[in-house]
User: What shape does this take?
Amino acid sequence: MYFKILGEPQIAVPQSTLYFAANGEVIGESHVGEKRYWVSLDEVSPFLLQSTLAIEDKKFYEHNGFDFKRIGGAVVADLKAMSKVQGASTITQQYARNLYLSHDKTWKRKLSEASYTIRLELNFSKEKILEGYVNTIYYGHGSYGIESASQFYFGKKASDLTLAEASMLAGIPKGPSIYSPVKSMDNAKKRQGLILQELTKDGVITEKEKQRAESEPIRLVAKHPHTDVEQAPYFRDAVQKVLASELNIDEQTIALGGLRVYTTLNPKHQKIAEQTIKEVIPDDSNVQPAFVSIAPKTHHVTALAGGKDFKQSSYNRAIQAIRQPGSAFKPFLYYAALKNGFTPATMLTSEATSFRFDEGRNVYTPSNFNHQYANKAMTMAQALAVSDNIYAVKTLLFLKPEVLIRTAKTFGISTPLKPVPSLALGTSGVRVLDMVNAYATIANGGQYEKPVFITRVENAQGEVIYEHQPSHEERLDPKKTAILTHMMTGMFDEKLNSSAHVTGASMVPKMTRPYAGKSGSTNTDYWMIGFTPQLTAGVWTGYDDGQKFTVATDQSLAKKIWLQFMEKAHKGKKAKKFSKPDGVVAVNVNPDNGKIASQYCPITREMYFVKGTEPEEYCTEHLPKKKKQKESEDSWLDRLFPF
Assistant: This one.
């Protein structure tokens, strides 16, 4: 009655947590030197269960936790030998010991074991007790439970064990250091023979089956699963942070709760990213990278690297570091401009300028790269393509910094932003993950979702405790997003060259498909982020201590990593065009003056506009003389007779 009142004992067995890639591959596990994978009885070979009962506890289904006849026999045998020669513990007793108790031989431990044994028998079926036993017993070499042991010794699931393999495994728990076939195949074979003999005597197998099992060659693997598949350590670090901070799973459960964590990792993308980083950044360089790739349609993070080598530095720069994005921040500014009446053809003058702000109390004097200025008006499309800083600051001061801050938050930028003129040039720190996900939002037509690392989590019993539910939120206007995307293809279009070249000119010869993107740089940071309709990727490179780049070739590392990754990740895939939604019109424009291009314009660039906002004036600068005179006369007549 007392033990019934105590009720069902709490069972909590440490088990390895496994991490799966999007394709179902195991990419890693967490454990503390103990490999444990819980399986149900129907996932265990019947040969193993029969062998275990034959050698450990033949009367398991008959007794109530204690085999008193066996205990008496063991006592007699021990007295005759004057030492401990025979065990008498039932499977239930051993399970109780494995779950709750140390293996010392004090009377206190023995009484506690008896108490737990009674409670197990009162509250659980024999099948549940047997299942618990085969999942917790130690089989040597760090393997706890039959699934881990089967994988270690034979490289197969416990359900696939042959009679020969099962009878050999069943003999190991008696003394793993003695009967492990890795330690001594001779001892293991002797123990196996004893078990097969018992099975034959009990009529479980025939003499012929016994002989076949004894002669079957044993092919040992002697290797734990997943030891060579500890893939994507920075990615798994990010996944564990999501489990803890967003799903509120405690660290103990994450490490030893036997979870099955199904992630969004694309092993191909991850391998390409890691190999590219290794190839591009010299081994003797202290430059560190941060890399993220995201599938825009789902916002699934397909690859992530937070540094050159996780073993050397576990600091995850992709999700932890806050660095200045430089001009990679400008797409947010120009989206805000599109929302406030600008078009790709809006003209502003680029020239050396000092800006007064805070009611004239402060002066800000930005400069372009190499102090190159157009010294004339230029279009917004051209300003983005050549990364003109004067145009950007003028735009910001027209809109007000607070407008850009609100817009950046809409894109998912989570770090604090300072409302100063230099914000247009990316002087407030951001996280790489936020930036890449913001660009993925552009690639997804303005549909926002937080970066997704995990699609499903199951507990040790196979119950789903978390499943991701897509929550696409239309944060950006689809038409203006399409216009921004088209503007962002301009960094690779040399038709938009002005006094400066477009910033992606060096990349164009190696491109096999259309890309949209933006680079950015400061004295200490170099970025490249861009996308196709299928994939978004972003790279940051810099020094952890914030030192300036002094080697010119290091300044191109981010662009090289990005382009190599994108080309390899898209290899064999059809090149897709960016969408142009209804209500958006394409107009051939002279990029130097923002007017509708004529057939005589030496350079034209297609630009997108919301219908009704496209330019109305035609370019007349390149018309033949007679044509110009006629246009001038028509214009004079129109002014004289406007009706």
Confidence is low (pLDDT under 50) at residues 72-86, 101-105, 636-643. The two ends are 108 Å apart (CA to CA). The domain at 35-215 is CATH 1.10.3810.10 (Penicillin binding protein transpeptidase fold). The chain is about 35% helix and 15% strand.
